[in-house]
Design goal:
- By secondary structure, the chain is of the alpha/beta class.
- Helices cover 36% and strands 26% of the residues.
- The protein has helices at 44-52, 74-80, 97-108, 119-135, 151-163, 181-192, 207-213, 231-235, 238-243; strands at 4-15, 18-29, 33-37, 59-64, 67-68, 82-84, 169-173, 199-203, 216-221, 224-230.
- It has a six-stranded mixed β-sheet, sandwiched between helices. A four-stranded antiparallel β-sheet has the order 2-1-4-5, covered by helices on one side.
- The longest helix has 17 residues, at 119-135.
Length: 247
């Protein structure tokens, strides 16, 4: 695929007196792995909230797959093929792993909740849910309550739920936050193995993770785009070294 997947044009977002995003233009090609890095307060999560529709911009445009989605609600963007994860896991802790996945599959397929109690519909949804668990090697934990899973497993469940609707654009907001080194390795490898037809935009504070997964890197500073380029170019950019990497 060669077309643009995500295009942000002259985007601005103000909160009272704070300019969180300042005149931002960003283009991500289909199939690309893009890391977005920057210090706390740089505007990274605000950008994700704008792209996903949980926030509306003060000005500017957002295009997904060539369509202007600037004012579309989140569910309309999801229907176009957009999915995201969050810094903090967004799960149903008192439901089982299978029930969490089943609800995600049901929601993304547009099936009424009552269908969960009908034979054929329930069977189809369960089949898809077990397929996802098999892909991630988690079928054996299908009956466990999510709150009893390790935090590393919960982060993987976040990814499974985001993938339930077979997205074409996936926003990953700090997928390794709070993980041990061993858990970080597992989650990083899981992301690396995702279908390359899925475009991924990744916010990540762990530079080793960000640089190992990305084709290109965008560096934010005070709501603006400071630098953009390949991993090698960003590592050797003097502005990035001075302002972000502290060298």
């Amino acid at each position: 695929m060669n077309s643009q997947c995500l295009l942000v044009k002259r985007l601005n977002k103000k909160f009272a007196g704070l300019q969180a995003i300042r005149d931002l233009t960003l283009c991500v090609e289909a199939g690309e792995r893009r890391a977005v890095i920057g210090p706390n307060g740089a505007g990274k999560t605000t950008l994700f909230n704008l792209i996903s529709g949980t926030l509306l911009p003060s000005s500017g445009e957002i295009h997904i797959f060539g369509r202007d989605v600037t004012w579309l609600p989140p569910h309309r963007r999801a229907a176009l093929g957009l999915a995201r994860t969050f810094q903090i896991t967004n799960l149903f802790p008192n439901l089982s792993l299978l029930e969490n996945v089943l609800l995600a599959v049901q929601a993304m397929e547009g099936v009424n909740f009552s269908a969960l109690y009908r034979g054929s519909a329930c069977k189809r949804l369960e089949t898809r849910s077990y397929e996802l668990l098999d892909e991630w090697g988690m079928r054996a934990k299908a009956g466990e309550l999510v709150r009893k899973l390790s935090y590393g497993d919960q982060r993987q469940v976040d990814l499974i739920l985001a993938l339930a609707g077979k997205p074409k654009l996936l926003l990953l907001d700090e997928p390794t936050a709070g993980l041990s080194p061993a858990e970080t390795t597992v989650v990083t490898e899981a992301i690396r193995k995702l279908d390359h037809n899925i475009t991924i935009v990744l916010v990540e504070h762990d530079m080793d993770v960000a640089f190992s997964l990305a084709d290109h890197v965008s560096v934010f500073h005070l709501g603006s785009l400071l630098a953009e380029g390949s991993v090698s170019e960003i590592k050797h950019d003097p502005k990035v070294q001075e302002i972000y990497l502290g060298e």
